[in-house]
Design brief:
The structure is a homodimer.
Chain A (H helix, E strand, L loop, with lengths): L6 H4 L5 H15 L6 E2 L11 H14 L15 H12 L11 E4 L2 H7 L10 E5 L3 H10 L5 E2 L4 E2 L2 E5 L17 E5 L11 H14 L2 E5 L25 E6 L1 H4 L7 E4 L12 H12 L5 H10 L2 H27 L4 E3 L5 E5 L6 H12 L1 E2 L1 E2 L10 E5 L4 H13 L1
Parallel strand pairs in A: 1-13, 3-6, 3-7, 7-8, 8-9
Antiparallel strand pairs in A: 2-10, 4-5, 9-10, 11-12, 12-15, 14-15
Helix pairs in contact in A: 3-10, 4-10, 5-6, 11-13
């Protein structure tokens, strides 16, 4: 008699963004005359850059001829892409990462959900609160999080690191020692970052206590300030304690094209000496079959001279939106943060409204969809996330509407 | 102190096809003058059909303009693709499957590895022997298979269903009752199939004992005989006991383009009443972010009139190769099976050679790479798999060389 994985049944409600999408859909259906503006999910709106489009067309043509057709990709991803990654994302910053430490995937969401598989089930995770829900949910599904307390919204076996106004939305070293630490900078959802010296403290801590850091750097391209690290491997000792996740979704608009990569340094070993790089290679080779060839070529084009210039312009476009949101909300009297090194603006709901109440209020009054902070964890209650990924016109209109509420 | 998932450490050696690839690579490096012909991994060689190429170019163009650009895909996959699947793969056969039971993915390999996640860890799996390694390996990684016996090549907590010459390479109902049964027809690696009445017996058995069948129909398009089922849902009662996996890799050459889907009927429930469809939806929504839009459009094109005609011609091309291999080997005195409803030929090694000895012998003497039967499980020992996915010219040459050995 087969039984289900009852860890799944512990998950409260549905995935945050599915709920947001459902509420959005229902509102549009009930009010077909209203123009709803979506500043909720971190989904880009600008088309793929011309250099990327060119490379996609070329790769499609290759797939049309027997001589240049490509079947199964190499397990780790094509060398042309892994070499471009090493050259541009690491060597250019004098950071030591080699091509056989890069694992090309279909995106950072899959990687951030799957990476926990290579660790023991009794390992304890530490997460920021608020946090990108996938880190916690994937560990819930695996059975690593204990029981859920509906009152507090907390899991019994998870170490939470509150990110609040008081600490500048940056986590402090946890009192209880974790085995696996999830960090994301620039942060989703708060848009906060930490300086290199602070990240170095985390690396030193992880090495000291024997923890592994899962470092999500999906928003790295949005960093504008000089002392904010672009990769955790800028910190000394990170190669023995950190895995890094990267995405092409936000720097190059690949949310619907799907590409990402994970770095697992060969120096990263468990206490018993087991190296993580071959474990992840085994997972990759057994449970995944590579990103599409044409998409890997598109990824390569992101690193071409034209691709770099064009995607840089897109990032500037979104960061201008971030400025519009940040300053508009501030003018309107909101308490806001983020939006400087990240495409997210984190605002305090007015009049102590709950996050979901503010969601409904904003949708009803301004026809703007955002993301309730409480969806990212208990410490997100009373906060709200807006993204800079809309069009400029919609962003300006949304902020105007919010100002008039 | 973080620890690794020590189930990974139980896995013997590396993934079968990685080992085959390594031996191939080493031989080529040592003998740069030899022309090695690869009939090992089931990787296609014909380019994508013109109708698919057209739709890819069109979709790439859509990604280049803001008005038609696509970001994150719907969780289950685009409706245009799910509707085309329902219409062509199910309704046309008068089989009841609806669009919200279809989950579009990046391929059947991922799905066949991930599907075990929604089941309890103490559920017992039954697999054919020989079998596609991913079914077993993904369960090893999850910790569901007990201990590995190096002598026998068997896992203590897996129910093996030997597929031998004596039973026409078709599994018999197991003596011990499993919770999860993996079936693959047309079979990889043996190329065998079973008739609809036999599959009905499996469905009846699963419903009787409360087991779930994971039915891998990746090779469905290669069926040429009338009484062989194209989908398990042709059998009465399959909606309450079976999940079906499908791939675009073999019917349309998507091995390097990556697309597949899984069917989880809403009627499929565990003994406690928990429905599997929403569980898989939750997994899909939390740990995956959809197949690329352009690839989903390519999948839709497979079902267009031109796409159907063109991919049908490709399948005929490969099946002609299968005939060349089957008849050539038979002429040469080999004992062969498969190759009628499947692109795989399963041959008995001559003179009681071991599978890996024959691999080395074939590579050395004929410069042909195949797959050792023992790599698929202990009952595959003494057998060898050749695929029909090469070019016609290479296939003819490979068989000529084998004949001359």
């Amino acid at each position: 008699m087969f039984k289900v994985n009852d860890n799944y049944l512990k998950l409260p409600g549905s995935y945050l963004f599915s709920t947001v999408a459902r509420k959005d859909r229902e509102f549009r259906a009930a009010h077909p005359d209203k123009k709803v503006i979506k500043l909720s999910i971190g989904d880009v709106t600008q088309p793929l850059a011309p250099a990327i489009i060119d490379s996609l067309h070329k790769a499609v043509d290759e797939m049309s001829k027997a001589e240049t057709f490509k079947g199964y990709a190499p397990d780790l991803g094509y060398e042309f892409l892994r070499n471009a990654i090493v050259e541009n994302d690491y060597k250019s910053r004098e950071v030591d990462v080699s091509a056989d430490e890069i694992f090309v995937s279909d995106g950072a969401k899959s990687d951030s959900a799957n990476i926990q598989e290579i660790f023991a089930l009794d390992n304890k995770i530490a997460v920021c609160d608020p946090v990108y829900p996938v880190y916690v949910d994937s560990n819930v599904m695996a059975g690593r999080t204990g029981t859920y307390d509906k009152e507090t919204g907390l899991w019994s076996d998870v170490i939470y690191m509150p990110c609040l106004e008081a600490n500048g939305f940056a986590p402090e070293l946890p009192k209880e020692t974790p085995d696996i630490i999830y960090l994301c900078f620039p942060n989703n959802p708060t848009g906060a970052t930490i300086k290199k010296s602070m990240l170095q403290d985390w690396v030193d801590y992880a090495n000291r206590v024997g923890a592994v850091i899962i470092y999500d750097a999906a928003y790295e391209a949005y960093i504008s300030e000089a002392d904010v690290p672009h990769t955790i491997y800028e910190c000394e000792g990170a190669r023995t304690c950190a895995i890094e996740l990267k995405s092409f979704s936000k720097n190059a608009g690949f949310t619907g094209t799907r590409l990402g990569y994970t770095v697992v340094p060969k120096d990263l070993k468990a206490a018993d000496g087991t190296a993580l790089n071959p474990l992840w290679a085994r997972r990759h080779g057994t449970k995944f079959n590579g990103a599409p060839y044409i998409v890997q070529r598109a990824g390569e084009a992101v690193y071409s001279d034209a691709g770099k210039a064009e995607t840089k312009a897109q990032i500037a476009y979104y960061m201008n939106n971030a400025k519009v949101i940040y300053e508009g909300l501030k003018d309107a009297g909101y308490s806001v943060s983020g939006g400087v090194n990240a495409p997210y603006i984190w605002l305090k709901t007015p009049d102590h409204m709950s996050s979901w109440d503010f969601f409904d209020y904003l949708l009803e009054k301004a026809n703007v969809v955002g993301t309730p902070g409480s969806g990212f964890g208990p410490s997100g209650e009373g906060y709200f996330r807006l993204t800079a990924f809309g069009t400029y016109e919609n962003t300006v209109e949304a902020i105007d509407r919010i100002k008039k509420m």
